[in-house]
Specification:
The chain has 399 residues and is mainly α. Among the domains are: 1-28 and 43-129, Serine Threonine Protein Phosphatase 5, Tetratricopeptide repeat (Alpha Horseshoe); 244-399, Tetratricopeptide repeat domain (Serine Threonine Protein Phosphatase 5, Tetratricopeptide repeat), CATH 1.25.40. Helix content is 72%, strand content 0%. The protein has helices at residues 5-20, 48-60, 64-77, 82-94, 98-111, 116-128, 132-145, 150-162, 166-173, 177-180, 184-197, 200-214, 218-230, 234-247, 254-264, 268-281, 286-298, 302-315, 320-332, 336-349, 354-366, 370-379, 392-397. α2 (48-60) packs antiparallel against α3, α7 packs antiparallel against α8 and α16 (268-281) packs antiparallel against α17. The chain is globular. The relative contact order is 0.06.
């Protein structure tokens, strides 16, 4: 299932008409009983319904600046116009201005707490930033109210999957079988989540369906390879990815996943070549540079590793692995203050990541801060095994 920008904004359009129907009467009051329209000296009354409809048209035509201006004017007339905040949030989402989007959407939710579409957009705003843990609560609330709705359930299942909550992911996605069982990414996610959750029946069912509808396509081999990659069956994964590349060598993420498989096998030269191939296809994918940084780190090429990690963070400042990669480089170079800065950022972004606490503890020990180092090592005492692999193809598909 694809989550298109049209579908996102359509949620806002439903809300728009609630205000667009409040046409001002001759007494300067809205027919819905709202506040009187503002008037300026020598000017006609500002009609929020007209502004609202104009903003809707601008948003539909993707004229984001004009739409934002119209919705702001509505809010000048009526600061409690929840639908205007909701659609202003949509404008910011489409412009990828996430902080502003969340500010507007949270205000809309405050004014309209019973509108599930607003909470869905709040979840989407977090989801688009890869903040899956923050996206889960608003998606959960929508699914509770609308258990038959496909979009919020699918996105909630993906968030559980990315958060490695395998049982929750499988339980959330299984009810979508009737609508999504012809969808390769859905089958891949369900099969992996069910396998990790110990749900053998659904694992077998999704895997069998994946094989049945794959039709030997490049997309099928991509997801079949991902299935093996997550099971640490690297040779089988490579065989599937190479079959995909043979069918369609320019398909996005094939070479990325080949690079991951070779990296896991410690075949660093092959991994580097595959990631560089994917850079040519997906030059803005932050994970390509993140994984290249790991390759160069393993090859003890600190200069190129640092350059790649910086490129990754420039594209996605929330990449914990890149911050940790920089920290390890600086630690090896005995630049402990710089290393500590990177570990601080990593722990801030993912407080549950034991590797971040371990590296931070090592750096603090080098700086002579033994008590703080001891606390970090305690936090890293039960390491979390990160067996899953990055899945940028799933994020791309769900856009």
């Amino acid at each position: 299932m694809r989550v298109s920008s049209t579908r996102i904004t359509s949620i806002g359009y439903v809300l728009l008409f609630a205000l667009a129907g409040t046409v001002a009467d001759g007494a300067g009051q809205t027919r819905s009983g709202g506040a009187p329209n503002r008037r300026s000296a020598g000017s006609k009354a500002v009609d929020p319904a007209v502004l609202f409809q104009r903003g809707e048209e601008a948003l539909r035509e993707n004229r984001l600046a004009a739409a934002a201006g119209d919705f702001r004017e509505v809010l000048q007339v009526d600061p409690k116009a929840g639908p205007a905040y909701a659609n202003l949030g949509v404008v910011y989402m489409r412009g990828k201005q996430w902080a502003k989007a969340l500010q507007a959407l949270n205000k809309a939710e405050e004014l309209m707490p019973n509108a599930p579409g607003i909470r869905l957009n709040i979840g989407l705003a977090y989801y688009r930033q890869n903040e899956f843990l923050k996206a889960i609560p608003p998606f959960e609330s929508v699914v509770r109210e609308q258990p038959e709705a496909v979009q919020p359930r699918y996105l909630l299942g993906l968030c559980y999957f990315f958060a490695e909550r395998w049982k929750d992911a499988a339980a959330t996605l299984e009810p979508l079988w009737g609508q999504e069982s012809e969808n390769l990414p859905y089958l891949y996610v369900l099969a992996n989540a069910a396998h990790r959750a110990g749900h053998a029946e659904w694992d077998d069912r999704a895997t069998g369906q994946l094989l049945k509808i794959g039709n030997d396509s490049a997309e099928y081999h991509l997801f079949a390879g991902k299935y093996h990659l997550n099971r640490e069956e690297y040779d089988m994964a490579i065989a599937e990815f190479e079959a995909a590349a043979k069918t369609n060598p320019t398909l996005a993420f094939i070479h990325f996943n080949l690079g991951v498989a070779h990296l896991r096998k410690q075949e660093y030269s092959q991994a580097r070549e595959e990631f560089l191939k994917d850079v040519n296809i997906e030059p803005d994918l932050a994970l390509n540079y993140d994984q290249l940084g790991e390759v160069y780190w393993q090859m003890q090429d600190d200069a190129n590793a640092e350059k790649c990690y910086r490129e990754a963070i420039r594209r996605d400042p929330r990449l914990v692995s890149s911050h940790l990669g920089l920290a390890k480089i600086y630690q090896r170079q005995k630049k402990y203050a710089a290393a500590l800065t990177e570990t601080d950022q990593a722990v801030k972004l993912d407080p549950e990541r034991t590797e971040a606490h371990y590296v931070r503890g090592q750096v603090l020990l080098r700086l002579g801060r033994k008590e703080e180092a001891k606390k970090e090592m305690t936090a890293a005492a039960n390491p979390r095994k990160d067996v899953s692999v990055p899945s940028p193809e799933l994020m791309q598909e769900s856009q």
